[in-house]
Amino acid sequence: QVQLVESGGGLVQPGGSLRLSCAASESIFSIYGMGWYRQAPGKQRELVARTTSGGSRIYSDSVKGRFTISRGNNKSTMYLQMNSLKPEDTAVYYCNIYPPYNYWGQGTQVTVSS
User: Fold this and answer.
1) Of 6, 40, 86, 87, which is most buried, counting CB atoms within 10 Å of its CB?
2) Which residues contact 106 (CB under 8 A, 6 or more apart)?
């Protein structure tokens, strides 16, 4: 199966920025739509950003205007640029295709706190 490895998380103050990276073991992001998901403590995993086969980018209302999903040139990496972070963005972030495989990487922790 394709391996998915997320990185770039950390502790950031409200209003700050982080850039998450996702490395896949195969060039899947040229074939499938991309997706970033997150799971906060005690909550279900949710989709925050994805791309469509036509190249459009779709964001959840909670991150629209602050997050940007993009793909790397090598088609096996993708990114999530997160700006104007809020405490409610605190979660473990996961990358996957969209719709997702039935398995997940280890995720990367994002904590927004002063």
Assistant:
1) 6
2) 5, 6
For 32-46, how does the pLDDT look when each residue is reduced to its tens digit (9 = 90+)?
889 999 999 999 999
| Percentage helix, strand, coil for the chain under 3-state DSSP, each rounded to 5 | 5, 45, 45
Q: Is the pLDDT of residue 68 over 90?
A: yes
Reported residue count of the chain is 114
* 58, 67 contact by CB (below 8 A): no
Q: How far is CA 21 from the centre of its chain?
A: 8
Task: Output the pLDDT for position 22.
Answer: 96
Closest by Cα among 95, 3, 108, 91 to 49: 95
Residue from 92, 53, 51, 47 nearest 69 by CA: 51
Query: Distance (Å, rounded) from C-alpha 56 to C-alpha 77?
Result: 17
